[in-house]
Amino acid sequence: MIRQIIKRIQWRKNPASISPWRSIHSPSIIEFPSTESSAISVEFTFIRFRFVNPSVSVLIFVCNCISFYVASSSEFSEHKLLVQSLEGCKISRNLSTVIGTHARIVKLGYETCSSLTSLLVTAYISLNRLNFARQLLNEVAYWKFELVSSNWIIASFMKVGDVSIAKNVFDKMPKRDVITWNSMIGGFVRNARFDEAFRFFRKMLSSNMEPDKFTFSSVITLCGRVGALDQAKWVHGLLTEKGIELNFILSSALIDMYSKCGRIETAKSIFEKVRHDDVSVWNAMINGLAMHGLARDAIATFSKMEDENTLPDSITFVGILTACSHCGLTQQGHEYFRLMRTKYSIEPQLEHYGSMVDLFGRAGLLEEAYEVIKGMPMSPDVVIWRAFLSACRTHRNPSLGEVAVSKISHLDSGDYVLLSNTYCSVSKWDTAENVRHMMRQKGVNKSRGKSWIEFGGVIHQFKSGDKSHSETESIYKILERLIGRIKEEGFKPATELVLMDISDEEKEGNLNYHSEKLALAYGILKSSPVSEIRVSKNLRTCIDCHSWMKLVSKVLKRVIIVRDRIRFHRIEDGLCTCGDYW
Ligand SMILES: [Zn+2]
Ligand SMILES: [Zn+2]
Fold it and tell me: Interior CA angle at 460 toward 454 and 466, to 5°?
């Protein structure tokens, strides 16, 4: 496409604008303004005329020298003009000038000039024309881009999720610096390519490139996102070993990492030791406490923050409202929502309204939640309607659930399942089946839950009913034995959760092999009898697995920590820190 545009521009341009000097000398392989070909031409002309007439020959030689000088200086100015034009485009953000300059570059034969190509690529990127930049990059045969430009190209493509182009550029670079590695690692984390991020970090260390605070900031975030405690401890140790001073970014990243890895006590002790003069450090602590369902601690931290004269921002309020929502503190939550505007002049954003819908919805105050949605100054997004639908499912209100579904323009599998479950919860089996039928007709598959557990520095992932693990046989043996034992303790499976009107045994069979149960069984198989087991799940943990794990913790006398999509559950001696409210 880009070639077509350039061709069109070339046709429109006056052919006379082509330099006569250029029309004689083939410019196709010129890298920088070359004086060599002109010199050879002068030489030939001189040799040709020398034998005809010496005076004419001298005259022609002088003329040629002048033309050579003019041509070379115009060459330099041409190149300079092209550079200036492209530099200017980055500021003026004028696409037609970039395309025009691109056309001129092709016409003048500067296509292979790496400094101009690099400028063109960066100009297209800054104008958000990544397709053009991508095409140009694919055509680059010899990589002579400057380090700064290459780094910028990597960062730009990582930002839009085009990891493969970033990797190509990285591979082609003859020289890399710490910014190159940081752009790659940070880019992988941003695009949720966690394995590659870890791999690149290790590769960086083995290539003797010293990581800096930006590298650590990405890697610490990475450990938190994966919830990998062993890796987290290793990275923290490395940070200390390298003697990198903690700034507010690293401090908040560490607090966040340990919170997300289930170590709220370590997060708290780091918080106590570091400087508190930036709001992000407070936010990390408040959000960490909220995630662990420690609403009272989150509120206390907020008060301390006020005492130390640090002004809260909108993220602080997301944390505090989430904390209230997870613990059913509807009144306090409502009060903080009011204070946001009246005391701190912070206008509530979409996520604050979402927290309020969640706060009322979880507490079963569905009408209040609906009122919040109706009173929003902006239109509610799909996340808000889903939170509302989820509350309708928990509190068995199919009519409001239908309202939520009617507002979600592109229903995904989770929405169908939630609505179908809402009907199941009030025993409307036929209507539930209709929803399932609609889901099948539209070709939407139910998204499966995934759970994972870290063991020996490796993440072991399980899907519901998964039999792909190399130790499947032992895992199922442990699980079957445990199921029998827990049944003896009087456990009743929550069969209403399994969709459709099928027999109770079938439903029970389905529930027994949920991903979190498989991950837990693997944890029991591999770990020592007293150690705690930490399982992560991509969705909210189901009621059945939650009650089952509470009994497992009592029977085996083990601490089980489940990190689901919403929060942490620390299950010990038959009780969970969430107080069964999540
Ligand atoms: Zn389950
Ligand atoms: Zn719980």
Answer: 145
